[in-house]
Every structure is written in structure tokens, then in C-alpha cells.
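Structure first, sequence second, as always.
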């Protein structure tokens, strides 16, 4: 996975204000031995403003 790649959210995260199908950009990749790789992802609204930044497991994301 390359940093700054686009990803698609595969599940709803209402506590973050994020919903299935939203597109984000990978900012950071996190490795913890014995756990699934995680990613810090920045999501934008339709006007290009930052809507949320969330750290998510890779299984929540589809990589393009």
C-alpha cells in the first residue's frame, strides 16, 4: 500500500461521521506485530474540506 493512495470505506462509522462508499486518502500505515495493519486516512467533503481523519484497520478499506 502506497501512502497518499485513495481508498474506499467499506462500512459505516457514524461516530466519525463516515459512511460506506466514502473516499479517503491514506496518510500513514501502522504495523503492530500480531494485529491487522492499520491506516490513518483523511476523508474530505464535496467542497474539498477535511471531513474526518480516522485510524482504521485495513479490512474497513478497499484499496484502488
Amino acid at each position: 500500500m502506497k501512502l497518499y493512495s485513495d481508498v474506499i470505506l467499506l462500512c459505516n462509522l457514524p461516530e466519525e461521521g463516515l459512511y460506506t462508499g466514502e473516499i479517503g486518502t491514506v496518510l500513514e500505515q501502522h504495523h503492530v506485530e500480531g494485529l491487522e495493519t492499520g491506516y490513518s486516512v483523511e476523508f474530505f467533503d464535496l467542497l474539498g474540506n477535511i471531513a474526518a481523519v480516522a485510524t482504521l484497520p485495513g479490512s474497513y478499506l478497499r484499496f484502488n
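Margin note: The chain has one domain: 5-63.
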